Amino acid sequence: MENFQYHNPTKLFFGKGQLEALKNEIPLYGKRVLVLYGGGSIKRNGLYDRVMSLLKEIDAFTVELNGVEPNPRLTTVNKGIHLIKENELDFILAIGGGSVIDCAKAIAAGSHYEGDVWDLVTKKAPVTSALPIGTVLTLVATGSEMNGGSVITNWEAQDKRAFGSIHTFPKFSVLDPELTFSVPRDQTVYGIVDIMSHVLEQYFHASTNAPLQERMGEAILRTVIEVSPKLVDDLENYAYREVMMLNGTFALNGTLSMGVKTDWATHMIEHAVSAVHDIPHGGGLAILFPHWMAYVAKQKPEKVAQLGIRVFDIDSKGKMDNEVAKETIDALRSFWNSIGAPATLSDYKIDDKELELMSERAMVAETIGGYIPLKKEDVKEILRNAL
Ligand code: NZQ
Ligand code: ZN
After folding, report:
1. What is the CA(22)–ligand 2 centre distance, in A?
2. How far is CA 257 from CA 184, 206, 246, in A?
3. How many secondary structure helices (H) and strands (E) does the chain include?
4. Could you tell me if the CB of 148 is within 6 A of ligand 1?
5. pLDDT at site 94
6. Matching CATH number, 185-386, of 3.30.230.10, 3.30.450.40, 1.20.1090.10, 2.50.20.10
7. Distance 267 CA to ligand 2 centre (A)
8. What is the pLDDT of residue 310?
């Protein structure tokens, strides 16, 4: 293991009726609140009215910013920063999935920064402080409700970047599985793929002697694989939704990455694809992860084989690691396809025209990926294989 520090300051309120926690929590940080949400799902399912009446009960002054896009955009972040400054707001309440929460984090950091917030997103300048944020999670996928990470798209520059800071962890997150009942089947599937991908990005690490971290990752994968087929056919089942919610949060709250050098190449490639084509994050991952795995298995098949044996129950007797690795990749791909995830970039009408641009955008450093560092040509080949 590598040396590490661990500090996760987000307080969770998990379960039915936990929305009430807003009344006690928000006044701890301020009562001038930016209420941030997406394209309208919270109005359709009644959550908006419930939150606004709780805010009224505590006499909060509220300013709203709605229309946060899936793959949230820099232009919306800037609108938020403007509203914070203009109205002297002291707290941000993000109600939504990863996109709304990520947008809140960028607004929070940007409103404490004199320069252009894109400097923070691209890590040209460090985040040194941020406005406090709280979240009400409505879609299980990103883990953003319990981490400091944020992913923002600069649509004009066709660039999508991730940044993170201890200052942008939510102060608290309300995790009520009932609030995810209205998530449609396709978004539920993208969330499942995203959760599993987060585990895989950390499972494929470049460190040694991390059996607990790996076993915890395998536990999440096995649990998600067990519950997903039932959930996608029974979207308002509380038991399935609550299991998925806890898995989603734990897949990316720092637990699995303690003491290991993680990979994340597939996420960087996916971010580049969605920066250019604006596709759902989980959809992109379902297409790319098996191709990344096949590419790295050519050099290091052992870990892929371990995943197959421990998570997909592949019988390895008398087989070489590369054979088991191939069966593992087939098992992963067919599991995702069985719940309705896409399999090729052409499912999103993406052809080879922008391979060069997407590969270039994925290269946020000279090489990407901790498990096996990839150069631009490697990325291009993975993308080509995924067409
Ligand atoms: O905008 P509304 O109308 O609310 O609709 C949203 C949106 O269209 C809808 N939705 C959310 N909750 C719902 C609901 N529909 C019905 N009922 C509900 N309860 O779902 C759609 C997608 O929402 P979005 O927030 O975009 O999805 P997700 O949570 O998957 O977030 C994706 C973004 O997070 C980034 C991705 O790159 C992408 O930009 N990521 C953030 C990470 C992080 N901060 O740690 C890590 C991830 O790997 C990821 O990169
Ligand atoms: Zn993700």
Report:
1. 27
2. 30, 11, 17
3. 15, 8
4. no
5. 98
6. 1.20.1090.10
7. 6
8. 98
